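note to self: dont lose this again. the chain is below, predicted strucutre after it. 291 aa total, dont forget to put it in the shared folder this time
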Amino acid sequence: MKIKLIIFLIGIIPISVRKLIAFFIAKLFYYLSLKHRLIAIHNLMRSFPDKSLEEIIGIAKESYLSVALVLVEFYDIPSLNKDNLNQLLTIRGLDNYTNACNEGKGVLLFGAHFGNWEIGNAALAILTRPLSFVYRILDSRLLEGIITTVRASCGNTSLPKENAMRQMIRLLKQDNTISILIDQNVAWYGGVFVDFFGRKACTTSGLALLAMHTQAPVLPFFTSRLPDGKYLLEIGGKVEIISSENHEADILINTQNFTKIIEEHIRQYPEQWFWVHQRWKTKLCQVKQRG
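---
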């Protein structure tokens, strides 16, 4: 009851006011945390060596604002429906998704902490069918309750990523859709190193393993924020999955292909990605030393 009351009270605040709050939150966090500000600027400088420092700082600031907007717009999700969704979002490539659903093997959607992935998940559930979103459980029980409740308002379920492989295989066998974000750093034992903006980034191998094991179609999925504040939900075509007798090589190639698609999309709208994340924290040299 308390969680639903919080969601309701925040939701009735006009979105214009919430966006103003998001602007101040972004400014506050950008200037208060020198460590995270430097991480964002360093990541951007390494990823876009041709851009000036002024451009880099501008993208970093916009990146903070993008995350803040995800937070304040999150509370609009319970009020979304088929009648008002077109006021917020345009969808492109829906036929790619419906064709994948018709295969009857379940569907794997992948994307990044980019634009507003939460609204994208909600919109797809409203327009087609609910999905399971793979995520990391939050430390705060209150925030955890709020987030899972909001996601459930449109039928989506939150699937904790810890030890989730068996459950994901089961869901796919039952012809369900799984949405997973694969753009964050993982420990050396949980992924493979692939090229991402010219540097080796340790990336989860879970999506490749699932795709190879279940033969479920894999589609890229991005929700980009447009200049007018609305969103463009894009669902790409089915990604070819490499499957040969060399299992380890196939995992690496497939993960690289997924990551390349994510990088290409981020390059279009760099200000909408989460640059403050330590994406390249796990180093390949550390793995070699352990070996």
